[in-house]
User: Fold these one by one.
Assistant:
Number 1:
Amino acid sequence: MSNATATIEEQVHEHTALPQHRHHFETEEQQREAGSFGMWLFLLTEIMFFGGMFFAYLLYRNWYYPAFATASNQLSVPLGAANTAILISSGFCMALGVWASEVRRRKTLVVMLVLTTLFGLAFLGVKTVEYKEKYDHHHIPGNSFSIAEFVNPAAYGIKEEPLAPDMAQKTQIYFFLYFAMTGMHALHMIIGIGLLFWLTHRAWRGDFTEGYVAPIENFGLYWHFVDIVWLFLFPLLYLINRHPLH
Amino acid sequence: MAHEISHDQAHDASNVTNPEHAEHHIVTPLQYTFVFVTLLFFTGVTVGAAYVDLKWANPVIALGIACFKAVIVILFFMHAAYQSRLIKMTIASGFFMFLVLIAMTMTDYISRAWGMW
């Protein structure tokens, strides 16, 4: 009898100690598990979404390899590598933010979320510089696209094997995929940065340093997923064939 | 006694022996730092390897390094290493499904012009 009373008291205690615990979950742990599970399911749909573009890349790269290699060499490896480092740093700060939330350090969490945002904005800034350069060179697919630099690279001071005009046209497919993939990646980052502003505000209020970590943890999953997409985009788009003449 | 438990107390807080029970594991800043440094190091390696002529091995190495980096991000930054088997299975099945879709679509494209080369 006394044991049963103690159990009920424990239950009551467990119930009141965790305000984030919704009544339709048996335990707070089950609630957290369900949240992670749902977030991962969402990320799997994201894998399929980006996967379609990665498949298109794989196929066209095999079909039009010379066009892909030549066009890829027009991207800046230093900018791409710097952006990779910036994004990894952003992910690192996000990971530390999850830790700060778990050990209930409000100010550390806010600082980490702000740093995550700043690195994210720096990434987008570098990306803007790269896009502008493509615009200036008429390397955006469409009516104003110019194959001049690919058909006659010597005239532009580019050390590259010239492409035949029909193959040079296929560089448009490369640049289309480049803009589609990095553009969708950037859109994910813009959405992420919007969410970061909201999370930073709530973290400042103290919402996530009282034992309720789930929103920070699940946003972290999203942010790291976006990082992973870039970890594949960087070698596939920037580093196709750098060695022959460079 | 049991009949006196009201509805909102009826959940079984002691039900922690179920197979999905997973501790909320806290990954330390030191572990995150190791992962961070490893990721930066392999970014350098993948750039360096791209400038060396390794024939067919170039894309294989580039993708190998990218996969390795992705795996350590998933395991540690995304805490997959410390999650329940349900979550691990979910992650693995997603990537497996992705590989199946790539392989099936590729067999179609490769076999369309079969015997015409």
Note: The longest helix of chain A spans residues 28-63.
Number 2:
Amino acid sequence: MATTEGATGSVARTIRKAAKGSSKSVGASHAGALTPYLFMAPYLILFAIFVLAPLVSALWISLHNWDYLLPGKPFTGLDNYTDLFSGTGTAGLFWQSMSATAQFTLYSVPPLVLLPLGVAIVLNQKIPGQKVFRAIYFAPYVLGVAVVGILWRYLLDPSVGLINYYLGRIGFSGDLPWTNGLPWAWIGLVGATVWWTLGFNTIIYLAGLQGIPRDLYEAARVDGANNWQAFRNVTLPQLRPVILFVTTVTILASANVFGQSYLITQGAPGGDTRTAIMYITDEGLGRFRMGSAAAMSIILAAALAIIGALNFRFLGKGDDY
Amino acid sequence: MAQAVASPRRGGGTPGSSKLVRYLSYAALLVLTAVYVAPFVWMVITSFKTNPETTASVPTWIPQPFSTEGYDAIRDPALDTPVLKWFANSVIAAVFHTLLVLATASTAAYALARLEFRAKKFIFGLIVATLFIPPIIFLIPNYLIVDTFGWIDSLMAVIIPTAATAFGVFFMRQFFITLPDELEEAALLDGANHWHIFSRIIMPLSKPALATLAILSFLTNWNDFLWPLFVLVENRTLPPGLAVLQSANTTDYAIIMAGGVIASIPVLILFILAQRYVIEGVARSGLKG
């Protein structure tokens, strides 16, 4: 509610202002034609060099046999792409890493979308200490993936880690291979990621919940709705744009997973948890085969774009976006 | 605020939650709190152990003996894990990166929010569109660009290129358009130029937004892992440094956790002091996204 209105409201305001500005020409009459560009110049220079130029050159590089260490970088057309799609050479390892990324995304998105929703709903009951809980759950997010990675590498260590020790104490086997065996490595990576980013999604949900008008709940209660019915008929539909946003952002973040695998499993066992970005960085910045690495990053980006679009199609269906 | 008002309005919570539901909720939140606090505490405790104790078959929650071995080791200049130098690099990079973002994003956003010119919609659209491009696309080309500038292994590589992100411009513009038009109308009548309006009227009114952007930029830069891992070779910042620390001390967890504590302290302090800005920044980016 507040969410969609906030966004559309600001767009409407901008348009109204633009219309008003052109009739009264507040800015234009007093500012020289160059003024806006002088204000934007410092940013636009950075933007052109580090955003626009790389965008074009990623495509360009991917059409070459671009080995950083060799003087010649011959144009090879679409060879880098066809090699990957026909499975030539090391293409199998790339697709293994794409599959690992897909698996991580599949396993991590449901808990990262649902658990924070539950936490936000519980917190939104105006529980005493709400802000303290919110801050505690968010705290790991400010640490960054490097600290989270080395900490969880230790906690998940199969022989000296705290997790296996306490699992052993409560009667489980106590030597589960969290860092180098399947499916345990996936569970460990997803667990560490949930611990790291649960608070981020919780805050977005909480803001969304607080934007739901109270009279809707009043009305539902007058109609005799119980808690569950109020949740189904008021909370969920009202929260739909926020859920869509959280789901999309989480899918994209999970598909970009790198640090957790790099620090916790190092891709073990046998490259099964080596993610696409790990493989692309190995190929491009480890072995310096930048042409094929650029092609891989474009394939990954295209896959993400398709997933993002499908997600909007599917979850946004029937909405007035 | 709303909590001060007596009960009938339920303060926006889920309707009719019974006492039992409240107690159960509270219990669940406390369990979750333990799950969140314990790893932090474990990291700090471990950092004050001797290395053998960190791999003891029965873990200890009180160091026996209390030891600063881990911290001594990372201060040792003879080792190739100079954590204090990495720390200094991280501070320098994050501070200068943040200043660069504030300066470039706020000036560009001022033009896009409050000046009229022909290409405005096109430029703003172009900038915002790049927010949706997966960042992996930029990695290889930007490595080559930074290499051309001779910035490999220089802090320039982690200060400047990441300041080109569209987020800051978008964020500041969304704030600037909420300020009333009358501000510059009056100032323009008094003969002020746009630089005066920007620097003396708009910027002072935008302190909360600037603070939020500053903190988010600082945190992002401080925590950035992938990019510095590849563009910094010896002259590292803390996150890639921690990866080196981990692989150089495989099972010397006191040293590794001491590095983790050192990397966490500044951002945790910043978070505690500026919690409101961090959380509002995240909530707002969600709502506006």
Note: Chain A touches chain B through 120 residues (CB under 8 Å).
